[in-house]
Amino acid sequence: MNSPRKATRIQREKREVILTAALEAFSEDGLRGATLEKIAEKAGMSKPHVVYYFGSKDAIYTDLLQSLLEVWVQPLRDLSEDADPLAAILTYMRRKLRMSQDMPRESKMFATEILHGAPRMRPQLSGDLKVLVDEKAALIARWSAEGKIAKIDPHHLIFSIWAMTQHYADFDIQVEAVLGDARKANLYDEADAFLTEFFVRALRP
Amino acid sequence: MNSPRKATRIQREKREVILTAALEAFSEDGLRGATLEKIAEKAGMSKPHVVYYFGSKDAIYTDLLQSLLEVWVQPLRDLSEDADPLAAILTYMRRKLRMSQDMPRESKMFATEILHGAPRMRPQLSGDLKVLVDEKAALIARWSAEGKIAKIDPHHLIFSIWAMTQHYADFDIQVEAVLGDARKANLYDEADAFLTEFFVRALRP
DNA sequence: ACAATTTTTGACCATTTGGACAGAAAAATA
DNA sequence: TATTTTTCTGTCCAAATGGTCAAAAATTGT
Which chain B residue lies closest to A183 (C-alpha atoms)? Predict the structure, then answer.
């Protein structure tokens, strides 16, 4: 089941195809709702073949979650000293918003996992993620103390950016239902304009 | 299976017990993840007994969702003309935040449902809910036009209130993991202070 | 007290589903 | 080409699970 030395090209490709199919399935129906059969079908192969590559449904799920996590926190990693702190925070917010727009399935998968207690991510949340957030919060707190941005709790500021940007991906059905079809086309432009103005007002010293 | 005239006291009580148990189960594991057996166990009765009262697992879920929806949108219903528009919006935000604090299971159940496409709520979202939101958005737009609050897109303002308040209930595991145990005790006080300041800055003309 | 009705459950069933297994097909290696 | 290894699937199985059913227990009405 496991490749001993290095993964062959075909192995890498197949695993990729399966992960893509699984992401679609999991984000639609969650871990329990998604079936191996559906994943196999989306991936264009037989059910045992999927098991052959990953061992179990759980393994696919966990694997996917882990590999996506790095991508997911990258924008926060990149938040750093800048000529203009306010612009830096706005850039971070915009990158998160863009991720909601471009990767709604990933966003939904994380949301579902955390919503249900994050049984497979808890250690990482209070480990790596906490360290990262604390570090960036300290940076923001410094900006705040130096009067470069408004005095504000940096942890909650980060939560608010997560909440507002991911909302557009996770609850897209609701957002679109409430706004109506007419405003659906340039929804993310609207969101960008709104959030930019919103955070500028909140953060300007 | 169905009571013909009026529900007896015992019927009302049993249904209530089942709904409470089901809310706990569904918010933990979702519709598919929650089992009739678990619901029955939490409710302190046998599995067929649960079916006797509701007919099916699906029926419990749908019933629950419908009855909770009214409670859920009540704070928005109550948003109305006020001596101080800014205060009115802040009150709305605070009531939503309090609901996250007091009813996290309800919040999670809605979140899961919408996240997975809201198959049983779609009509209500683009129907009743849209009407309600449009109405309140018009009110906010008027305040905005009269210069009583800042110029801001009212729909997105409402989304931002939903997003930021519900975030504390839906993603509590993540929030608590990142903040650490020390700040867990008065988390909602912190959130209240942060959000109040935040929205005041954003909305002040 | 007795009959009728409602409530409650144990036993059972059909379906779904994760995944094991043996072996076929294909590819790599010699 | 022959052999070894890897890839792939049809078939099957056991566990989980939503729901049925007949009958027991409890309650209600007279």
Answer: B155
**Residue from A198, A199, A203, A204 to probe the interface with B (highest B Cβ count within 10 Å):** A198
Tokens of B15: 């249904």
Angle between helices B36-43 and B57-77 (to 10 degrees): 70
pLDDT in tens, A33-55: 999 999 999 999 999 999 999 99
Task: Identify whether the C-beta of residue B205 lies closer than 8 Å to the C-beta of residue B148.
Answer: yes
Distance CA A16, CA A101 (A): 22
Smallest Cβ–Cβ distance between B125 and the set A118, A156, A177 belongs to A177
Which of these, A63, A68, A66, lies nearest to A53 by C-alpha position? A63
| pTM of the complete model | 0.94
Write down the ipTM of this complex.
0.93
